[in-house]
Amino acid sequence: MVNNTLRLLLLGAIIGFAGLLQASPKIETWQTGNGAKVLYVHAPEIPMVDVRVVFDAGSSRDGHKAGITSFTNSLLSEGAGKWDAFQIAQRIEGVGSQLESGSLRDMAWVAVRSLIEPEVLDTSLQTLSAILATPSFKKEDIERERQSILAGLLQDEQSPGSVGKKQLYELVYGTHPYASDPSGTRESVGSITREEIVKTHQRLYVAKNAVVAIVGAVDEDLAAIIAEEAVGGLPAGEAMPALPPVPPLDQGVIKQIPFPSTQSHLYLGQPGLKRGDQDYFPLYVGNHILGGSGLVSLLSEEVREKRGLSYSVYSFFIPMRQLGLFQVGLQTKNEQADEALKVVKDTLQRYITEGPTDEELKAAKQNITGGFPLRIASNGKIVEYLAVIGFYDLPLDYLDRFVERIEAVSKQQIRDAFKRRVDSERLVRVQVGRFSAPVAQVNRAEAAE
Amino acid sequence: MRRLMTTFMLMLMAAVQAQANVVEHQLKNGMKVIVKQDKRAPIAVSQVWYKVGSSYEHGGITGVSHVLEHMMFKGTDNLAPGEFSRIVAANGGNENAFTGRDYTAYYQTLASDRLEVSFELEADRMRNLQLQEAEFKKEVEVVKEERRMRTEDKPQSLTYELFLTGAYQASPYRIPVIGWMSDLDSLQVDDLQVWYRKWYAPNNATLVVVGDVEPDQVIRLAERYFGVLKPEPVAVNKPREEPPQRGVKRMALKVPARQPYMVMGFKTPVIGKTDQDWEPYALEMLSYILDGGASARLASNLIRGSELAVSVDTSYNAFSRLPGMLVLDAVPRPGTPIETVERAILKELDRFKTELVTDEEMARVRKQITASKVFEKDSVFYQAMLIGQLETVGLDWRLGDGYVDKLKAVTAEQVKQVAEKYLVDDNLTVAVLEPLPMEENITRHSAAGGRHGQ
How far is residue B350's CA from residue B355's CA, in Å, rounded to a whole number? Predict the structure, then answer.
């Protein structure tokens, strides 16, 4: 009885959705006086506003000093305008606001969440403005932050996962700017000077290199004022030039790193896809089936559900300005690393050759389209979408058309896209752990000494 | 995980205020249903909370609550293993589950017109779980991998685990949620069967729904799916009271690592288990003043200021089932001895006993909790978490209503009093991670030797 109803629910799932899809938030866009792009959504229900300012200032802009963009970003709130780190924190926290900043390969950002009471909002925005435009970069703050970054790098060295991921990026990207870790290395961070940080800030934290995303209970006029207040103090500057394309891998690479851990961490990787990529939707839906949908993915079914080999096994594409990483990963006790690796490679190979079944594709579409309302159910999620849409120049109807684009993906498109874009002969394989029988390692050609 | 959850709950407590839109209902079989309407987006979260977790466990079967949580996805009389997840996915839902010291909870977030799917599935596995030997054998291996990933290969997690076992003598809060490896090795499917029968019944569960729903309709649905389930006699937990601590406890852990690390904790009271109900609120205020942001004392004086540490965090949870601790953990600045950091932290704590906290500090905390109460409305999931957690530790969800007011009523004098009473040496436990070199340890254990190192 229960059984039948449940099965009916499963079969019927796709039918009901068409009617309930939530209208996507209406996005307004304009430029500030100094040339920053603004994206705004009115969300009147809660008396708060999220302001997220993103810059093309991630580690792909590091140049020769790995880690300098992240270092610069983390120093912004350590002293700016006439305030020191304590005063900045006191101003933000004293009105109950929240400040967050961070930096990855493409993007660096500073975000504020504030109540909309005028004095609160004003204090929050004045502080944000100073942080972005007039950071002090005092010597003592730089030294303190340097020690903190070095401590973080030491901690990464005791984590087999961090060690493996860093190695994976280095081997997949070689001499491309995506190769180095956003936090840099102990050596590079140790050598960064104040002058270099000041120059990095002057070059990257400029209006034409910025996108301002605003979501909250503020009308469009107020949003315009907020945007001017947040980034109006920045010079217009120039947008960063395009990054070089990511070269394909010439051959497969195998790297083993001995580590005193009970588990081996296994990673497979390759250059994946870009934002706005013509294969974006087939690869997105295809990966959802392969390893992007948690417990119901093919990888999880084979590695975890059928064999109990790993707690977490996944695959993903990170869509970036240039080809972001395609990654498959898992952790398993050292003794069964070879077995787990074989299951993963077989599953991936079979998927590249055969593609998904009709049932798998249908289930994936049901999950993605049926779950669409969850993706845009909070201001916090919408403001991140706005930043991504603005940063990567995605069309403003990206969210409106998301569901129809998912629905349009066919089995053939997925198989075709995986065949063209994922090459099992030329994967980078990184294994961190203890090995009973080390394999012959294959180096990246251009990295050979 | 657990620690994160505590810190997270601390921030979260600020989220709930008097809500006219909350409806509470008890089914005839004893199951409690709490519905909170939030029509901002056409979604709903449904959470089923069971009053069972690692603090209900005893030696030999530690980790059983968490393994059972994993097995709840492995088939019922009506569904094959994994089918639960496939149905939720096909309905566009997100789902997962979590186990803590005091609770095991299961949730789905869905488009709000799919709520019935969640109820039918949860009601089914509440009473009809099929614990199959073959599925169990595989899943317990998955959990052991989880333990290796979360604990065995993480020096800081190992230190924290050691810290808890050292700090608590009798309290079941000494038991790690994920269980000891040896207990996982010897766990039997029969142990799970016993545990399931003992705790998984409607009268030991709370259903929390938050989202774009009509409370009357939700209660009707709950009656239909959960109301028909048979209640069970539910065991009464033994008190397992922690004896008073009489002297500082110290322990050390030596494992391959790069960074020293330290955890310290003072035994503290919780709401509902103390006749001085203001004390837990005063301890919450004290925690915020220590570590409520970058302008708080630890960040200002230890990370900046003396620059002895690169991170120092405080956690205290006034709302657990049993009394816990005010816990601080720290990573020293490279090259700084861990003892120096410990002394500096203790000195910061001593200041609470000799000088009153300032109006400015208290005002900052009040602004923060008032604002975060507004911010938390951005997530239906966290709103449901808060209600479920309070109910499941044996408190009334309405306690959340008064949180901001209670915290605002705390005086500087009360903060001083709790510091004098609880932040004392005899009440202190300290665990320190002493790193061993990593390279030597690879060579010693690796058959391959150092050929591949670089």
Answer: 9
